[in-house]
Structure formats: C-alpha cells, structure tokens
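pinging the channel bc i need a second pair of eyes. not urgent but kinda urgent?? the chain im working w is below, pasted from the shared doc
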Amino acid sequence: MSVSPAAPASVSAPPHAPTQAELLDFVRRTAADTALIASLALDPEGRTWVRLEGPGGSEAWLIGWPPGTGTGWHDHADSVGAFVTASGELRENSLAARLPSDGWKTLELTEGVDRERLLPAGTGRSFGRHHVHEVLNASAERHAVSVHAYHPPLPRIRRYSRTGPVLHLEHVERPEDWQ
C-alpha cells in the first residue's frame, strides 16, 4: 500500500487589483441596494458618509449630499476610481487633460479642457489616476446619495482652488484627515 504525500495546504492568492470596470460594476451593484441606500443617515447641513468594504482591497464609501453641497476641485492621486449616483442627481465637473502628478503649485489650463456630466440616479463613471474633478449636488431641495470606490485605498487627496483657467494646489490630505 502506498501512501500519497499530503496535499499542500491551500494558499489563497492575494487579491488582484480591481480594474476601473470592476470598481464601476461594484458601485453600480451597491447603489442598487435600496436598503443600504435608505440606511444612510442624511444631515441637512453637511455630507455624511459610511465606509464600505470594496472589492479586492479597495476603499469604498456611501456618501449623502445635502442640497447645494460639493467636494471642491480635487484628485485621488495614484488611485483609480468609480462612482454612481444612487438617488438624486450629481454633477461632475472635470478636466480632460492629464496634469503633472507632482512638482507644481499653479497651472494655467488651456481652453477646451472643461467637461461637465450630469449623473442622475443609476448613472456613474470610472476614472484613472490623477483625475481632477469636483462633484456637486446642484439641487436646491433634494439630497443625493452616491457610492464610490478607489484602488489602491486613497493614499492622499490633493485639493485645488480654481480661478478662471488657473488651478492652484491648496493642500494635500492624508487618510488620517478623513477617517
């Protein structure tokens, strides 16, 4: 009688980095979870958020937007991301230009780089690294709720101000600033 060697212990492979498409699929499925969306406590004065478990080690958030609130101009540095409006409507203003990732404080933008997207409930988008945008709830009466996911988990967020075509780097936030 021969004895077979013991099978090696199962070693789970590390999760692969989710693609933009996988992040978008995750936020779409999560935004369709009406019970989860309804569970978010909405504040009439400021944004509210709850951290979610995203796919493949990504960082995800459920965010409530009171009327008239927004993020201001920012990017998510080296992370790719996706977001979907779950209820209400959001507007995204973005730049269709790749900006230098570091080493600048002020940039003059060329004509034609501005983009605007209206994102009613059920719609969203994905984006690559160094995507500069602002997200707004332009409604005067209605809250909006959205789901966001980023990979790798946000190492930093760079905040900008904008005057006409001039973009100014104002400050850099680290995870400890928002968690």
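so Residues 20-177 form a domain with the Jelly Rolls fold (CATH 2.60.120.10). and The mean pLDDT is 90. — does that match what u expected or am i reading it wrong
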